[in-house]
């Protein structure tokens, strides 16, 4: 009986040793096949360099602000697309935002630009509740909406949502068809009024 127990014990130890040895070999194999993140992508070129000779350069709209036509939104309440050149606009920072020179509400009468959305002058953070001096999110979907006459700096990075357009050929068919519940939504955001849609009270 004792001999049988020792044999079983030896067999289990041998199996554990084999599994550990196999795992180490697999890890070593994976280490040798890792791809450097700089090599990931569709082209092997430095896309941030002005000297990189790409087979086809993307041609962005070169119309200057004020001489371009606004575009229909990609979907209801989508961020407006940028129809004019953004050459020398970047980087956009909280302290240096060239978009403000035309799109602030107080400038649009003079510039004829589309005014920054009222949502960008609104705090749309989740509602918080305080317990023993510590603030927690209520997690019930409610927003603590508060309006301000000042721009909400949470939105300072315009190009995170608003993008310039380029003349490119894409070999993938786009089957997306936008549907607008209101004809005016093709050109104007209604997000400020509809921000709570789908959130149960």
From TrEMBL:
<feature type="binding site" description="covalent">
    <location>
        <position position="102"/>
    </location>
    <ligand>
        <name>heme c 1</name>
    </ligand>
</feature>
<keyword id="KW-0813">Transport</keyword>
<keyword id="KW-0349">Heme</keyword>
<comment type="similarity">
    <text>Belongs to the NapB family.</text>
</comment>
<feature type="binding site" description="axial binding residue">
    <location>
        <position position="103"/>
    </location>
    <ligand>
        <name>heme c 1</name>
    </ligand>
</feature>
<feature type="binding site" description="axial binding residue">
    <location>
        <position position="84"/>
    </location>
    <ligand>
        <name>heme c 1</name>
    </ligand>
</feature>
<dbReference type="GO" id="GO:0046872">
    <property type="term" value="F:metal ion binding"/>
</dbReference>
<keyword id="KW-0408">Iron</keyword>
<keyword id="KW-0479">Metal-binding</keyword>
<dbReference type="GO" id="GO:0042597">
    <property type="term" value="C:periplasmic space"/>
</dbReference>
<dbReference type="GO" id="GO:0009061">
    <property type="term" value="P:anaerobic respiration"/>
</dbReference>
<protein>
    <recommendedName>
        <fullName>Periplasmic nitrate reductase, electron transfer subunit</fullName>
    </recommendedName>
</protein>
<feature type="binding site" description="covalent">
    <location>
        <position position="158"/>
    </location>
    <ligand>
        <name>heme c 2</name>
    </ligand>
</feature>
<keyword id="KW-0249">Electron transport</keyword>
<feature type="binding site" description="axial binding residue">
    <location>
        <position position="120"/>
    </location>
    <ligand>
        <name>heme c 2</name>
    </ligand>
</feature>
<dbReference type="InterPro" id="IPR005591">
    <property type="entry name" value="NapB"/>
</dbReference>
<feature type="binding site" description="axial binding residue">
    <location>
        <position position="162"/>
    </location>
    <ligand>
        <name>heme c 2</name>
    </ligand>
</feature>
<feature type="signal peptide">
    <location>
        <begin position="1"/>
        <end position="25"/>
    </location>
</feature>
<keyword id="KW-0732">Signal</keyword>
<keyword id="KW-0574">Periplasm</keyword>
<feature type="binding site" description="covalent">
    <location>
        <position position="99"/>
    </location>
    <ligand>
        <name>heme c 1</name>
    </ligand>
</feature>
<dbReference type="InterPro" id="IPR036280">
    <property type="entry name" value="Multihaem_cyt_sf"/>
</dbReference>
<feature type="binding site" description="covalent">
    <location>
        <position position="161"/>
    </location>
    <ligand>
        <name>heme c 2</name>
    </ligand>
</feature>
<dbReference type="Pfam" id="PF03892">
    <property type="entry name" value="NapB"/>
</dbReference>
């Amino acid at each position: 009986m004792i001999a049988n127990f020792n044999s079983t014990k030896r067999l289990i130890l041998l199996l554990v040793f084999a599994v550990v040895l196999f795992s180490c070999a697999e890890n070593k194999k994976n280490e040798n096949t890792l791809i450097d993140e700089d090599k990931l992508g569709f082209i092997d070129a430095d896309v941030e360099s002005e000297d990189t000779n790409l087979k086809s350069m993307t041609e962005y709209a070169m119309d200057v602000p004020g001489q371009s036509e606004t575009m229909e939104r990609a979907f209801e309440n989508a961020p407006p697309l940028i129809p004019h050149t953004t050459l020398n606009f970047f980087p956009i920072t909280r302290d240096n935002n060239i978009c403000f020179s035309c799109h602030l509400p107080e400038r649009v009468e003079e510039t004829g630009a589309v005014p920054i959305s009222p949502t960008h002058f609104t705090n749309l953070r989740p509602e918080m509740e305080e317990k023993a001096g510590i603030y927690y999110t209520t997690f019930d979907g409610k927003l603590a909406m508060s309006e301000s006459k000042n721009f909400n700096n949470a939105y300072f990075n315009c190009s995170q949502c608003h993008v310039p357009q380029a003349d490119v050929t894409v070999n993938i068919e786009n089957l997306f068809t936008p549907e607008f519940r209101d004809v005016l939504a093709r050109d104007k955001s209604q997000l400020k009024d509809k921000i709570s849609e789908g959130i149960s009270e």
